[in-house]
Amino acid sequence: xxxxxxxxxxxxxxxxxxxxxxxxxxxxxxxxxxxxxxxxxxxxxxxxxxxxxxxxxxxxxxxxxxxxxxxxxxxxxxxxxxxxxxxxxxxxxxxxxxxxxxxxxxxxxxxxxxxxxxxxxxxxxxxxxxxxxxxxxxxxxxxxxxxxxxxxxxxxxxxxxxxxxxxxxxxxxxxxxxxxxxxxxxxxxxxxxxxxxxxxxxxxxxxxxxxxxxxxxxxxxxxxxxxxxxxxxxxxxxxxxxxxxxxxxxxxxxxx
Length: 256
Hints:
This protein is mostly helical. The chain has twelve helices and no strands. The protein has one domain. Helix 4 runs parallel beside helix 8 and helix 11 packs antiparallel against helix 12.
């Protein structure tokens, strides 16, 4: 091999990985330890569904987190009291506007019983379905964003980037529920730990809880992955990834 060939090999991203497809375990480890190299390899090797295993892991972690939450009666009751207060305000508004009868509002409030089977089905059912919904919604949003940017990519790799990054969300959820059980109140690993809802207000506190370490890590990895699989620069991919994050954080904090 002459010097020119060596030079091309050194300057072509991921060329050494074009014939070395990652195993699913290697991809899982890589998204944590080397997201850039992992995404580069995925982009340069034949299509493979790396997204399924991290989603299954996410579901298992969610079920564990839900079990820990449901086992802590004090935490459940405190969380449900906040939810009931918020729902009562919404129901009272609908009753005044004539969109709901008082009887229907009372029935809806009675159904919010943490000891009831309906509540448990919703909690554990959401733990199973949630990861798939998150995977699909984010993948479709990024698909549209990359199409607008006229990037060249394979949708399977968008699923792979999002799916593998969900491993970070799973880890964050598990640590958050452990902290929540210890503190006796729902918490995330971020700015929400430094303030109280009473001090900053309900909506501001909701926004602060979303600005946690694992969410930021998640979207950083997404930005890196999208940049590699779609061959766009990091400014564009970061704008897309964090644009989605900002919209989600602001809208959900204001509406819920």
